[in-house]
Write a structure and sequence with these properties.
The chain is of the alpha/beta class. The protein has a domain at about 5-140: Nucleotidyltransferase, domain 5, CATH 3.30.420.10. It has six helices and five strands; from the N terminus they run βββαααβαβαα. The chain has helices at about 55-60, 65-70, 80-90, 105-120, 140-150, 175-195; strands at about 5-15, 25-30, 35-45, 95-100, 140. It is globular.
Length: about 200
Amino acid sequence: MNDLTYCVVDVELDGPTPGENSMLSLACSACGEDGAEIDTFERNLERLPGAAPAPEVAAWWQGQAEAWTHITADPEAPRTVMADFVAWLAALPGRQVLAAHPLMLDGLWIDWYLRRFADLRVFEGPFPGSSPFAGPGIDIPSFAQAALGLPYAETRPDYPPEFLGGIAHSHKPLEDARGHAALYFFARRRLQEIWAG
């Protein structure tokens, strides 16, 4: 299993529902088995035709001025961004594993955009479509909860800075992807130490 590249993604959105709302930004930190970053991807996307921001999400973004400026600068067509993302994934070494915090949210959006704009999907199964990713992916908060003995969290926990490699959660997608990658590998090292006894 040492040919895996862990693709830790983060998306920023203007609402909860793909198609009704839009993905505004997509980033990925690709890491090797040792946790070292191999490469990164970050792009901003144009809103979907006919989609509209959810009012409560738009109101929330008003309090995130710096991140909002970052994720809305120079947006590109979703088809272009997803094609470039797929090509970037294909150029990474080994087999790519999707990881996110949480996988349920980011994976859902990436799956919708892959299916609509690249004729791919996040997970291969007994249905049409292939995937650029190997296996079911990794839900980072679930893994961290189990590995670090954390309580179940219904919202994103306020992790200690050392869990995130000192990277603040800023809602700038590449920074957040890097922080979540640091969390995954921090939890994995802790678990490996326990197994080593």
